[in-house]
Amino acid sequence: MAVSQPSKSRDLDRLLLRPGHLAGPNFEPGQELREDIKEYVKVLVVGAGGLGCELLKDLALTGFRNLDVIDMDRIEVTNLNRQFLFRLEDVGKPKAEVAAKRVMERVNGVNITPHFCRIEDKPLDFYSDFSIIVLGLDSIEARSYINEVACGFLEYESDDNPLEETVKPMVDGGTEGFKGHARIIIPGTTPCFECTIWLFPSQVKFPLCTLAETPRNAAHCIEYAHLIKWNEVHGRKSFDPDNSEDMQWVYSEAVQRAELFGIPGVTYSLTQGVVKNIIPAIASTNAIISAACALETLKIVSGCSKSLSNYLTYNGVEGLHIKVTEFVKDADCLVCGPGVLIELEKSVTLKKFINQLEDHPCLLLTRVSVSYRGEKLYMQAPPELEKETRSNLDIPLFDLMNGVSRDIINVNGMAGKGDKKQSCMRKLRIAFKGVDGVADIDMAGGA
Amino acid sequence: MIRLFKVKEKQRELAESANGKPPVKKQSAGELRLQKDISELNLPKTCTISFPNGKDELMTFEVTIRPDEGYYLSGTFVFSFQISPIYPHEAPKVKCRTKVYHPNIDLDGNVCLNILREDWKPVLNINTIIYGLYHLFTEPNHEDPLNHDAAAVLRDNPKMFESNARRAMAGGYVGQTFFPRCI
Ligand SMILES: [Zn+2]
Predict the structure, then answer these.
(1) Is the peptide bond before A382 cis (omega within 30 degrees of 0)?
(2) pLDDT at residue A1 is higher than 80
(3) Out of B23, B49, B120, closest to residue A153 by CB
(4) Which of A189, A283, B75, B156 has a CA positioned 20 to 30 A from the CA of residue A150?
(5) Which residues of B are known to be catalytic?
(6) Residues 235..294 of A with a Cβ closer than 8 Å to B: which?
(7) pLDDT tens for each residue of A371-400
(8) How would DSSP label each residue in A328-341?
(9) Residue A203: its chain B contacts at CB < 8 A?
(10) Residues of A known to be catalytic
């Protein structure tokens, strides 16, 4: 074996150049692997905050050369203690741009493209370009959005196995104070974000009448200013948590409210925390979670070791506790599941299709409502929507789906028989017979 | 997965956007769940729902309640619903768009209903909320006050509360506050 050119990182070489007992099934150690990671892998980092800064640095030092980072926020003074890529003179500048620049200055050869915008502003093509997506986010909404985009690329073969080239892996990190998690999402194989959305606790919401009448703590005063006083003064102009003037207004109203009731403890950062539902970030938690995420990214890409299976929790509140839990995928997940494959003649009307679902052994669905790409094809209720969609019943489903040969549609209704019926939602993979593409794939599946 | 990425990257270099059809954003899980709720609505005659943005935009809608008994008989009250993309993980945001003299609804339309805030659970649905709102009109309660004055009057002098509520619905002043007609 030729002597490998040592890379800057000796530790990385140990992982990538040598075979090992814990390696994944397709691991091919060697210099080519190391170079291929540099050349062919494109990583998207979502979020350039506390966790995002760590991720960019860690991924760059792990040997990834093509990184993009997306974040809509600008740098605030309060970020500087832990978002270590930012300096005082950066306050007010976009986080993504400064973070990209700083890491490129420090790590030779890495190329980071910043995107200063909302994740929803990018077209789906943008996301499909990346080999892997790494998430350093603090909101459920944003995670849920990226998860839906990434799982949206997933296609299944006719035997319900995921089509490998459509799998867009994700690595998700999250921290709250001294606690954090790192997980991997391989759509179609491990549970997606939606499969386990219950893992995220619901936000604590105080009763409005408590806020209005009997505030007992600083958070009550802040929520009063945010939810009640804001409307009273600003009418329908909605509060923008990312606008510092709005936040300042809520803070000063909360202070007045607290003084009125003799309640201590209202501060500007607590106001931000309560309004945005954020627990103060701890730099070391971010570093630990980011390291785990970067390592998992490398493992998924290179196969140099078996991947985390599939959810790591870290708790440093008292002592230190780390646990890995293998969550299971929801087979019927509307976001990542295969859905039930149904083959149809082009001439089948929506009405006939709905009737077929009642007899389908996997479905046994009655009182069915149907939608396609957000368009309501038929709604059982309320009466006005039923009336509006009724005329679709006599139209062939193929036409209602704009002549597409295969696509996902969503239905809901009552499943089961007799008194065991329960309301449910189902994803269906419709394939029309005799339309180009369908026959080929069926033959491929049967060959 | 490196081999796969390599193949894909090479393909991409060879033929830019050869696969033709652009990907389409699927419906979010929140939208699908809402669609289920809406298609299963079973409302009392006193409640109607409407979708100002059409049948394909269900995430904002209005519910109109016309109580057939109690203090608010024959009034018409409109509520706006705003549904989060992560519904039902998060409760709908509900506001009363009709100015109402009510102990549990303030003059800006905030509503004190436990299932909209502290007691919201993903197993609840839009139907439950609409019934909850309807009950606020048949059984207003002075124990969860958002309109402090109205709550005090309801507690201490129900007769006067009744006449205040009538006057407000007919279009008129209660104390310093003017209420547009909603009958
Ligand atoms: Zn899923």
Answers:
(1) yes
(2) no
(3) B23
(4) A283
(5) 112
(6) 235
(7) 999 899 999 999 999 999 999 999 999 999
(8) ---TT-TTTS--EE
(9) 90
(10) 209
